[in-house]
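User: quick one
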Amino acid sequence: MRRSLHMKLVLIMVLLIVALMVVTGAFLMNSVTGYYINDFYSQMATAFGQGNVDFVRDLQTAEEGEVEGGARIGEVLSAYVGVLGVDGRTRNYYVLDGATGRYITGSSEAPRGGISITPNIAAALLGEVGFDSDVTADYMDAAIPITRGETNYIVYILDNRETVRSLNAEMFQLILEALALGMVISILLSFLLAKTMVNPLQRLTRGLEEVAEGDFSKSLEVTSQDEIGQLTESFNTMAQQLETTVAAVENERNKLNTLFQHMADGVVAFDHAGGVIHANPAAEDMLHCTFAEGDRYENLFDDLFPFERVESASAPLSAERVVDGQYLELLLAPFSHGGQGGVLVLIHDVTQQRQVEQMRKEFVANVSHELRTPLTNIRSYAETLEDGLSDLPPQTAKNFLGVILNESDRMTHIVQDLLTLSRFDSGRSELHLDRFPFAKAVEDTYQAFLMDAQKHGHAFNLNLQEKLPAITADRERVVQVMVNIVSNAVKYTPDGGSILLSAGHSGDRVWFQVDDNGIGIPEGDRDRIFERFYRVDKARSRQSGGTGLGLSIAKEIMAQHEGDLFLVDRAGPGLSIRMELPVSGPRKGAAYER
Ligand code: ADP
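Assistant: Done. Structure below.
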């Protein structure tokens, strides 16, 4: 770049000098020639004009007995060589015959081949004065007709312009020398110019290269106030603005990248040719695969929509896919990027939604089923009673009425449980917090079940840690949970079993645990035990008056207290279930997890 700019400068300077010299030279040489011609004719005019009467008269006056007038004119002319500027070398005079133009005499011999008839001689032959000269010709001449005595002659002055030519040659030589000197000066000047122009440009180029590599920190020194100085200033301003802009863009990109990396939804982007360009960890998790550069759309999503179809779609296309039991909702949309574009696949895990939907469906089916069973019983017993009221023994009728009452109690029970759950769901259920001794609540529950447990022949024991603190909680609800898990232990432990109630305090929490050696819960059902209406053995549960809602309500109550209810992991037989509560109650206004 430097070399080429330098060369250009040298070339411009040289061309400038050459052009200047050529123009000056041509002008000068032309002027010299013009001046010389003018000088020649003014000299001739002076010599032959009216101012020089003696000379003209001498030329015209014939002497008596004169034989050769031409020779006489020659003699007169030779006396006036000074006036005519005749030097015999570059300028000569000739006396020609006035009728033929033939050479008679002259300051030199006639040129070989004789004197050629120039336009001026031709004019003189006609009796006119020939005083014109062609600038382009290599001579200049003047032909003056002279009548001496009876005879006509022509005085012919011929200048071969040798003087002009040698003058011009010398001038040409001088111009050439000046040209050579000018070129040397111009080359030196071009170096100087190159130094003042190219060096700052070089600095700018280096600065630009650094900016291109992402280093905006250096600002260039402004060394002049000229255009290059302004350019340097503009460059510094541009670099600063670029730094700010790049930082903002970088920041934005980092933000987007963080979002992209940590967003819960999966994103896979494909370029115009269908190759993967981006994929976030969520997408890899959901699709159970790792993306590598070069992975193709055809191998991943072609079963949903062909690539071309997505690319030309005006609105996102949606599809669904099940991967390893997970329900995925996929949105496929085209995007355009610098006229290139590609396809974006957004993946949303809708498993939970599906499960909730499924649970809701099951719940409705369960509620209908649970209510229909007692209703059917009530109806059939009531019909039997109506049909044979008079024939039935009073005891049987009483038993029937007992069943009807039991079934309606069961229905009331179910409806009450459902109402409780619905209050939890809608957030309308408020805790009535109170401070009460936890040990007392446990003892009361133990006492409430003691007789029933003994009736079933269970070994029913209570193991209380000493000095249990008072806790802040909704006493009625907490006791409801205790009652539920103890009653389950009694219900699902065959007669003659063993049930242990224990309670204690650890950290800022109290706990209550019920261990039995009953039928326990099979491994596969343990996770679902807190679901609504879930019962391991439906018939048995219903027989024992269970609704399958007890544990889910108990779990909700514990969650509301920011406590917990869970199955203790231990080998069978039987089951261990444990509840935990914070001593100081739930934090005020804290949301609880369901
Ligand atoms: P239910 O009113 O049917 O007892 P729960 O929600 O209290 O409903 O309990 C749900 C199911 O959990 C019961 O139907 C039963 O199958 C099982 N279960 C609860 N506690 C025990 C236990 N101590 N031993 C064995 N199974 C239990």
